[in-house]
Design goal:
By secondary structure, this protein is of the alpha/beta class. The protein is built from six helices and ten strands. The strands form three sheets. The protein has a five-stranded mixed beta sheet, covered by helices on one side. A three-stranded parallel beta sheet has the order 1-2-3. A two-stranded antiparallel ribbon has the order 9-10.
Length: 194
């Protein structure tokens, strides 16, 4: 059984559900509820739906019927051994979450997969490493303040080591970690080898 942690429901994070035909998917209840609500508001509110494909939300319902969807209501510790799913409510989206991987007992062994609460390392320092400033990423439907506070929470959870945060949209990941290109031309960055 494969496990897929959906940090939020935007098309670039959920558009590949069909590529995991045997996986169990994990998402926050608030995330699903917020998108269903937004879809019922009518055409005048269509700007709220800019980041999703409504068909992906319907696929979640089908996954639930097949017992392949785990809907979380807040923090879930040890969802798998040493993996926590923590809410980042009202940040990038209403029900965003992030993933904490604990490879050992110390803070130096902890990694955070940020979802889109942090797009790039620049969101953590604003381009000035000597006088850093949190800068929230765009396409957020939640609070900019909550984005910044959650980024601070993530950074604190890894002892301030930015390289232990993994922003999945960060192009510079391949400069910091072993990387290669797949036979289909897709870039792959291997965080697990460190």
């Amino acid at each position: 059984m494969q496990h897929v942690f959906l940090t939020h429901a935007h098309f670039d994070h959920m558009g590949g559900l069909d590529y995991f035909p045997n996986a169990k998917f994990y998402i926050q209840k608030r995330e699903i509820e917020s998108w269903v609500w937004a879809m019922t508001k009518g055409r005048r509110f269509r700007s709220l739906l800019g980041g999703i494909n409504p068909a992906d939300i319907l696929k979640l319902v089908d996954l639930g019927l097949k017992n392949r969807l785990v809907v979380l209501d807040g923090a879930s510790h040890d969802v798998l051994p040493n993996i926590d799913l923590l809410p980042a409510f009202d940040t990038h989206t209403a029900g965003s979450q992030y993933v904490v991987v604990r490879n050992g007992g110390s803070i130096e062994d902890r990694w955070v997969l940020t979802g889109d609460v942090v797009y790039t390392y620049e969101n953590l320092h604003g381009g000035d490493r000597d006088d850093p400033c949190f800068v929230p990423p765009g396409l957020a439907t939640g609070s900019q303040t909550n984005l910044i506070l959650t980024a601070e929470e993530m950074l604190a959870s890894v002892g301030g080591d930015m390289l232990r945060l993994v922003p999945v949209h960060e192009e510079k990941l391949r400069e910091n970690f072993p990387s290669r290109v797949s036979d289909r031309g897709l870039p792959i960055t291997d965080i697990a080898t460190l």
